[in-house]
Amino acid sequence: MASVSMTVNGREVSGDVEGRMLLSSFLRDDLRLTGTHVGCDTSQCGACVVHVNGEAVKACTMFAVEADGAEVATIEGEANADGSLSVIQQAFQDHHGLQCGFCTPGMVMSAAALLKENPKPTETEVREYLEGNICRCTGYHNIVKAIMAASGQDVAAIAAE
Amino acid sequence: MYAFDIERPSTIADAVTALQGEDAQALGGGQTLIPTLKQRLAAPSKLVSLSGIGEMQGVCVGDDGAVCIGGATTHATVSREAAAHYPGLAALASHIGDPAVRNRGTIGGSLANNDPAACYPAAALASGATIVTNNREIAADDYFQGMFATALDEGEVITEVRFPVPQAANYQKFLQPASRFALVGVFVAKYADGVRVAVTGASENGVFRWAEAEAAFSADFSASALDGLTVDADGMIADLHGSGAYRAHLVSVNTKRAVEAAS
Ligand SMILES: Cc1cc2nc3c(=O)[nH]c(=O)nc-3n(C[C@H](O)[C@H](O)[C@H](O)COP(=O)(O)OP(=O)(O)OC[C@H]3O[C@@H](n4cnc5c(N)ncnc54)[C@H](O)[C@@H]3O)c2cc1C
Ligand code: FES
Ligand code: FES
Predict the structure, then answer these.
(1) A46 touches chain B (CB under 8 A)
(2) Residue-range domain boundaries for chain A
(3) E strands, A18-149, where?
(4) Class of domain A87-160
(5) Does ipTM exceed 0.90?
(6) How far apart are CA B115 and CA B198, in angstroms?
(7) Which of A118, A161, B85, B223 could serve as a FRET partner for A9 with CA atoms 20 to 30 Å apart?
């Protein structure tokens, strides 16, 4: 066992973990932050994407011990302080960027990482950035539209497609 | 996963010492190793994480002009920091897997693993790179020894990779969309003393240099120089994604594209 401490959504947390404990398990099982979804557990689907020191990573493909001392952000920290939805979350709702919602936490966290690095991405850039996020419901179209809208761009042209 | 401990040394020397222990294994970005551990295909008793070793991070330019990349540098960092010095290499790094894989996966892990469909082996071989470890320097031509096989000894750590910068280069990755690895990838690099062509994803022996294409391009660096040249479909990987003949065809097509796009 090793003791780890990190900041998760601005809150200091710590725990004793086995070497093999994944960051996804630490978040979900120990901290009960079950918004981070585990879809495949084989590094393919991106449902588990969280930010570690500001960078998007697959929480199912990183050990909790490796996040010792890090700043971690999960979907639970995305909403505004007053509980209202963040701009990205609201755009997903407005543009029907989700159906079953299973992929959505990873999609939103990937979108947040993209817009931080590239505030006005093109549609192609959005699609390329989402390469590691799989959705079996929406066909991606409305997810892309939501992210474009969240970046403040006109999505009328995409809507017309 | 079987149980193991993780050590997080902060120097190369401490990592090498920690790796002396029986059943100890290096942990780079974990983007290959963690899935392997989950399948119980590996059973180390201790993982030695390289991610906290400052001296293995980052991109710089050596006195001889070569681009030097620390062994624990992530693909995302290479795509940003090598762009000004070796754009063809940075472009390759920026198309490995997806953004989350690039934020964790490292050049040392990729070269140590030597997956037959991985991207970095093509760049290292086509650039005549030097693989620097904790105790020696290995020329790329001696380093790759077949699928998942390299010249590395047990416990040896890739601390740095040095890439001589070509006059022009390009990597063409024909994507296998499910895995996001290369179905076939070709890296072409033009140096003052000749052209090097390395092919990944195709051969059952892993990454290889295509000597006939190198000779043709050294005389005439244009796609038409390749007319009539093909690789033998025997010995090409054949799986549900493509036959050996299909891969052999992709080698020619992507080599031509790489020469046309080289800058
Ligand atoms: C969804 C997905 C898509 C991917 N797509 C691609 C792709 O398109 N192209 C591509 O090339 N790769 C791809 N990869 C693989 C990725 O690039 C990995 O990051 C890489 O192969 C392994 O690097 P790592 O740092 O994660 O190493 P790890 O997984 O930590 O380790 C891999 C092996 O290398 C050893 N090792 C690690 N670092 C060192 C070192 N410095 N010295 C000596 N030994 C070391 C480990 O002991 C282990 O045996 C993909 C992976 C995933 C999950
Ligand atoms: S659960 Fe992590 S990538 Fe699918
Ligand atoms: S909304 Fe169902 S998987 Fe994306």
Answers:
(1) yes
(2) 2-77, 87-160
(3) 49-52, 55-58, 71-73
(4) mainly alpha
(5) yes
(6) 14
(7) A118
